[in-house]
């Protein structure tokens, strides 16, 4: 039995695969509910739909009044413009996407590498004032970034981290480590400590026991946690716009925001860039949708 | 060699004192059982010996050498966990091979050892399965095989039979005893089941609230319980305890009964005592000089025997009788007492009174 990430979850409660008892439009939903849900769906989905439409419309259709919902000419020009500058060289936007990939990727790896062992330690060992420490770690997530951005800005200026990718990587990692610790601690708690005890009696050191026997069981949890961290770093806007300024360093969110505000706004380009920006998040969210509630014990311990 | 010695182990979890000065001497090659109710500190004792628990105080000596600070791997012990703790993503084969892999043995050596163990424990056909595909009894055997596959200094077993059903448990009791005899190795075996303790052990240590109450052979623990608590914990049905005091050559009960004072008794007159009487040392069928008046309270037929509950004054005595015994509740009875086999405890301290002439 090859245990894959997917199986770990689908092996969960038997009710998982049965359809929900109450379906849309089915018995138990009043007309009012249906109407409200429909209104809500339109409000939520319309901007996304309009973004996608705008990204494939020609400019004159974008500005057409009355708005053209269906009868417009489809073009991929805006998407080309996202990646290629007018001279055929790489566009500033594509550089910012690359920066986003690097910053989000490296900060996530950093947060995972630091956070997973910390979560393991908090789960397994008697740490002095453990609850207080964990609360402190969590409390760093209470405040919104905008509260600390000015002091961070001043500190970064002192140490020369202003307008560097490293600066963004460090601050994102700092924000993701607490999240990783908290989420991973839950996953580690689920893996019985006896596996490590047994491994140590087999003759392994504690670290070997963790590495060989616990870590493989944590992989689904690590994947889910890392995706959340990745999405946070990918979407982050406040730090990015305060701490970076040059095109070579900027990440995608401030770069896309920067497209708006000139004398004319190329809405087609803004929409296309937004679609490109949103896609990875959608893909990742889709990949981890089942792990949001995943348990990871697969087994051999009776309790 | 395989001696295990623990001296003055102390360990607290928060406000709970799990171990309160536990001292044990496990001789080489013995089947040493640590017996006690849940929460007595049995598992903590075992984990402390294994090096899985950091002690507040005390020391662990293995083969006479201090091993208190050693890592589990350095202690050369094998352990069977109550939960079995089989690695869920490894096959039974890989689980059993794990201790040898950790020691970097060659794969041919590992294969031979796993094969030997699996035939000893009759699990040859399960080797390619994962723990999730094994039954409780099968997991238990695989866990046992993982411990037995190498020859450690001693085997530590934490209630290995608790999670098995009764039939399997009885079977495994015999099998474990057989394995122990075959290996001649030291076993430290933790259980809350007195039947396991009495039937398997060379030596029993009775533990309560983190303190050792008594260490001895099963017969010693049963026949000469060191205190009232051990007497009550070991034995089924439980020993009956009657409040009384000595008065000249008689024992006078708080409920008004009186018995001849046992010849071996050393109690001074008037000191409050507890008379401990085991069910098999009482009879409602025989006649004797020493007897207690009571009335039938109830019958518990158990197939091979019947336990007769007799009310004496305000207390209920458990009396073992033949399965054919009958009676109606309320009917008056004489309970004959075998005073040579009775126990006397100090009612204050609970300690057994010394017996004159052994």
UniProtKB/TrEMBL annotation, chain A:
ABC transmembrane type-1 domain ranges (all copies)? 97-288
User: Which Pfam families does its entry note?
Assistant: BPD_transp_1
Q: Which Gene3D superfamilies match?
A: MetI-like
The ranges of region (Disordered) come to: 1-22
Q: Which residues cross the membrane?
A: 31-52, 97-122, 134-156, 168-188, 209-234, 267-288
Task: Quote the cellular component terms of the Gene Ontology held in the record.
Answer: plasma membrane
Q: How does it sit in the membrane?
A: Multi-pass membrane protein
Residue ranges that the Swiss-Prot or TrEMBL entry lists as coiled coil: none
The family database entries (InterPro entries) matched by this protein are listed as: BP-dep_ABC_trans_perm, MetI-like, MetI-like_sf
Provide this UniProt record's keywords sorted from A to Z.
Answer: Cell membrane, Membrane, Transmembrane, Transmembrane helix, Transport
Q: Name one GO biological process term.
A: transmembrane transport
Location comes to: Cell membrane
- Main localization is membrane
Is the Membrane keyword given for this protein? yes
CDD domains in the record, alphabetically? TM_PBP2
- What PANTHER family does the entry give? ABC TRANSPORTER PERMEASE PROTEIN (PTHR32243:SF52), MALTOSE TRANSPORT SYSTEM PERMEASE-RELATED (PTHR32243)
The family this protein is said to belong to: Belongs to the binding-protein-dependent transport system permease family.
Name this polypeptide is given: Sugar ABC transporter permease
Tell me which species this is from. Answer: Sphaerisporangium rufum
Per the UniProt record, the lineage of the source organism begins with: Bacteria, Bacillati, Actinomycetota, Actinomycetes, Streptosporangiales
UniProtKB/TrEMBL annotation, chain B:
GO MF annotations in UniProt: ABC-type transporter activity; ATP binding; ATP hydrolysis activity
Recorded hits in InterPro entries, A to Z, give: AAA+_ATPase, ABC_transporter-like_ATP-bd, ABC_transporter-like_CS, ABC_transpr_MalK/UgpC-like, Mo/tungstate-bd_C_term_dom, NA-bd_OB-fold, P-loop_NTPase, Transp-assoc_OB_typ2
Residue stretches making up the ABC transporter domain: 4-234
Q: Where is the signal peptide?
A: none
One term under GO cellular component: ATP-binding cassette (ABC) transporter complex, substrate-binding subunit-containing
Protein keywords:
ATP-binding, Cell membrane, Membrane, Nucleotide-binding, Translocase, Transport
* Name recorded for this polypeptide: ABC transporter permease
Organism, by scientific name, is Sphaerisporangium rufum
């Amino acid at each position: 039995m090859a245990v894959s990430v997917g199986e770990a979850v689908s092996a969960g409660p038997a009710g998982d695969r049965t359809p929900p008892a109450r379906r849309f439009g089915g018995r138990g939903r009043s007309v009012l509910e249906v109407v409200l849900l429909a209104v809500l769906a339109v409000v939520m989905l319309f901007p996304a739909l309009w973004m996608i439409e705008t990204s494939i419309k020609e400019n004159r259709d974008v500005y057409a009044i009355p708005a053209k919902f269906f009868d417009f000419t489809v073009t991929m020009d805006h998407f080309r413009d996202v990646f290629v500058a007018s001279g055929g060289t790489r566009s500033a936007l594509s550089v910012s996407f690359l920066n986003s990939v690097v910053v989000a990727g490296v900060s996530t790896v950093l947060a995972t590498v630091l956070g997973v062992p910390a979560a393991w330690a908090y789960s397994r060992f008697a740490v002095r004032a453990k609850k207080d420490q964990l609360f402190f770690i969590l409390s760093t997530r209470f405040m919104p970034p905008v509260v600390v951005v000015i002091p961070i800005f001043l500190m970064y200026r002192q140490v020369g981290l202003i307008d560097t990718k490293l600066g963004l990587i460090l601050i994102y990692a700092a924000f993701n480590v607490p999240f990783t610790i908290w989420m991973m601690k839950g996953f580690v708690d689920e893996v019985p400590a006896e596996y490590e005890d047994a491994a140590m009696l087999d003759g392994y050191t504690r670290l070997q026991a963790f590495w060989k026997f616990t870590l493989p069981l944590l992989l689904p949890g690590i994947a889910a946690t890392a995706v959340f961290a990745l999405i946070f770093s990918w979407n982050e806007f406040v730090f990015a716009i305060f701490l970076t300024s040059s095109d070579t360093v900027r990440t995608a969110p401030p770069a896309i925001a920067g497209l708006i505000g000139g004398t004319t706004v190329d809405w087609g380009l803004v929409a296309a860039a937004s679609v490109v920006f949103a896609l990875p998040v959608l893909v990742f969210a889709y990949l981890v949708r089942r792990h949001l509630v995943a348990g990871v014990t697969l087994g051999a311990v009776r309790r | 060699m395989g001696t295990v010695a623990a001296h003055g182990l102390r360990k607290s979890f928060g406000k709970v004192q799990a171990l309160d000065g536990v001292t044990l001497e496990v001789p080489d090659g013995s089947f040493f059982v640590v017996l006690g109710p849940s929460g007595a500190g049995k598992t903590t004792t075992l984990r402390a010996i294994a090096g899985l628990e950091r002690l507040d105080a005390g020391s662990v000596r293995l083969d006479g050498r201090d091993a208190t600070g050693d890592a589990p791997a350095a202690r050369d012990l094998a352990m069977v966990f109550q939960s079995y703790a089989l690695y869920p993503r490894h096959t039974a084969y890989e689980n059993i091979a794990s201790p040898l892999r950790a020691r970097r043995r060659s794969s041919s050596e590992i294969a031979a050892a796993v094969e030997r163990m699996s035939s000893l424990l009759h699990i040859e056909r399960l080797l390619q399965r994962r723990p999730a595909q094994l039954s409780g009894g099968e997991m238990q055997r695989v866990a046992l095989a993982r411990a037995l596959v190498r020859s450690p200094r001693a085997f530590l077993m934490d209630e290995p039979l608790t999670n098995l059903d009764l039939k399997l448990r009885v079977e495994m009791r015999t099998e474990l005893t057989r394995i122990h005899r075959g290996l001649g190795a030291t076993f430290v075996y933790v259980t809350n089941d007195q039947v396991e303790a009495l039937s398997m052990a060379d030596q029993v240590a009775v533990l309560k609230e983190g303190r050792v109450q008594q260490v001895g052979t099963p017969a010693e623990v049963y026949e000469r319980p060191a205190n009232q608590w051990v007497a009550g914990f070991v034995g089924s049905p439980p020993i009956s305890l009657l409040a009384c005091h000595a008065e000249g050559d008689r024992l006078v009960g708080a409920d008004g009964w009186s018995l001849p004072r046992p010849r071996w008794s050393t109690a001074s007159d008037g000191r409050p005592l507890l008379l401990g009487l085991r069910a098999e040392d009482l009879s409602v069928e025989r006649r004797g000089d020493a007897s207690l008046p009571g009335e039938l309270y109830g019958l518990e037929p158990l197939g091979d025997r019947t336990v007769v509950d007799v009310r004496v004054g305000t207390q209920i005595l458990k009396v073992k009788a033949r399965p054919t015994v009958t009676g109606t509740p309320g009917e008056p009875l004489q309970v004959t007492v075998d005073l040579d086999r009775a126990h006397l405890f100090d009612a204050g301290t609970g300690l057994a009174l010394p017996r004159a002439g052994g």
